[in-house]
Design brief:
This protein has 321 residues and is an all-beta fold. The protein folds into two domains: 1-6 and 14-108, Lipocalin, CATH 2.40.128; 109-321, Neuraminidase (6 Propeller), CATH 2.120.10. 0% of the residues lie in helices and 41% in strands. The chain has strands at 19-23, 26-33, 44-50, 60-65, 67-68, 73-74, 80-87, 90-98, 104-107, 121-123, 129-133, 136-140, 148-152, 173-175, 181-190, 193-202, 209-210, 223-229, 235-241, 245-250, 263-268, 276-280, 300-302, 308-310. Strands 5, 6, 7, 8 and 9 form a five-stranded antiparallel beta sheet that branches. Residues 1-22 are annotated as: Disordered. InterPro entries: 6-blade_b-propeller_TolB-like (IPR011042), WD40 (IPR011659).
Amino acid sequence: MRALPASGLKAPGSTDGDEWHSTAMSPRLMRVNDIQLATDAGPNARIAVFDNAASTAPRHEWRIAGSLESPPLLSPDGKMALAFHRNAAEDAQLTVMNVETGAVVKRGSLLTGASLIENPVTWLPDGRYAYLVENRLIVSSPASGTETEVARLALPSNKASDWQGFVSGMTTLVASPDGRRVAFSWTERRGSGLDRHVWVADIDGTRLHRLTRADETSPLTFWFMTPSWSPDGRWVVVHLDMSATQTAPIFPPSPYDDIPPPQTVSGTTGCRSSQILVYSADAEREAITWPTLDVQHGVRVKAANNQTAWLSSCGAASWLP
């Protein structure tokens, strides 16, 4: 393992600062830091592009006024970045930027006005990009003024208010390196709570299937998040986010009431329990052993001192080419 070059900007009293983003389609990496200094005129983000994971200095570096509502995604050719960007005059808009100059190339999509919880957009290897609006897969390009629906995915409702219909912005979408398939996270109802799972489909919506499976007997919620493809398109890495206090209602039998009162149980876990898992892209609802660290899907890493550990994280993991 090696450390990536840090910007050195951190929030006061925190180790947080830089975010790194990569894709299996390109060796380039992007470093983003939106820490605001007292000398800053307003909200802005510092963005740097590196040729590869061994680079010690950025190829390009710039700042963009306003705020980024999603991490910027680097295009396969390393020339464009794609992100939801908000400025003083507009709500967050899907924005294509030139990474050499920071200039805006295109702004707007069918997701304008949606509440963004995750990042429902991905580059395709031919320079186009795709995004999910509700359960509809839309494709466009930096030079196009047309947004084309290519598929309607036969998914369960993710609308937690009444579990009918769909809402946008609650998914992370990522295309396979060859552009033939997509993987994405999706919120689903289980009992009186909700889980988040990872699904895979062909770009035309066929061969839709779910990779992940929660413990059906557990009162806790399972969030399988932020999928990323392996360079050969055979595997998908997933972050199981169990890093928060999670509470769900249970209804145990009661000897005192005909209708037992609802009770709740809570489980508090840390980042060490949020395991990085790898699934075959053709897997079908494979179970894991959580809270025991899962050996079948887990990743074991070795440090320079030869100590080994199962990989867990508070954030996502990405595959490099």
